[in-house]
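lol ok so funny story. i was supposed to be doing the assay writeup but got distracted and ended up predicting the structure for this chain instead. priorities right. anyway since i did it might as well share w the group, maybe its usefull for someone
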Amino acid sequence: MDGAWVYLVTGGCGFVGERIVELLSRQDYIKEVRVFDSVAREEVEKLSTATTRVTVMRGDIRDAGALLAAMRGAHVVLHTAAVVDYRGTLPFGEMRAVNVGGTENVLRACCVLSIPYLLYTSSIAAVGPNTSCEPLLRSDFDNQLTPLLRAQHQDTFCAGELARTKQEESLARVMGTGIMLTPQHPTIIENASVSLNPWETGTAEIPSDNAAPV
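and the output, tada:
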C-alpha cells in the first residue's frame, strides 16, 4: 500500500458505519476516510489519527449529484446507508427510494468515477427465510416462503425485504463492469445499548480486531 488510499463510507455515522470508520482510521495505508451521511455527527471526525483523516459530509444517497461529488477521488466505497423498519411504519415508497434508489446512485457513481472497489452491506432478508433452508432463486421465491411470511408478502412489514431483493438485482447489473463488488448479508448485528427490534435487545459487541484491507 502506498499510504494514499481514500475510502468513503455511506451511513458512516450509524452504528455499523461508525465502527467501520473507526477500524479504517487505524490503517496506515489509508490517507482519508470520508463519511457520507444524512445525519452528520461531527464527533466522528475525532476518529482521525496521525496518518488518517476522517471527514464527515452531510448528504443523502438519494441525491445523486451530492453523492457523486463526495465519491470523487475515492478508491474504495463501503455502502452501509439504509433505512431499516422493524415495525412496518415507514411507507414502502420511502424505503424503496433510499434502499433501492440510493444504492443504484452509489453503483452509478462507482461506474462514472471508475472506482474499482465496492463493499455493500445488504441483509439476509434478500435471500430468505424459507421453508426448505435452501438458497432462494427468483423462480421459487414465493413458493419457499413460510405460510406466515407468504401472508405478509404484500404487507408493508415485508417492504424492507422486497426492497433488499431489488437492491440485489441492481447490484447484479454492475457485475462485469470492472468493479470489484462484495455484498455482505448479515442476519443481525447486536450491541448492548442498541434496541434491535420491538422484542429484542442485543447483548454482544462487534470485535475490535483490526480491519483487513479490501
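The chain has one domain: 5-128+162-187. The radius of gyration is 18 Å.
back to the writeup now i swear
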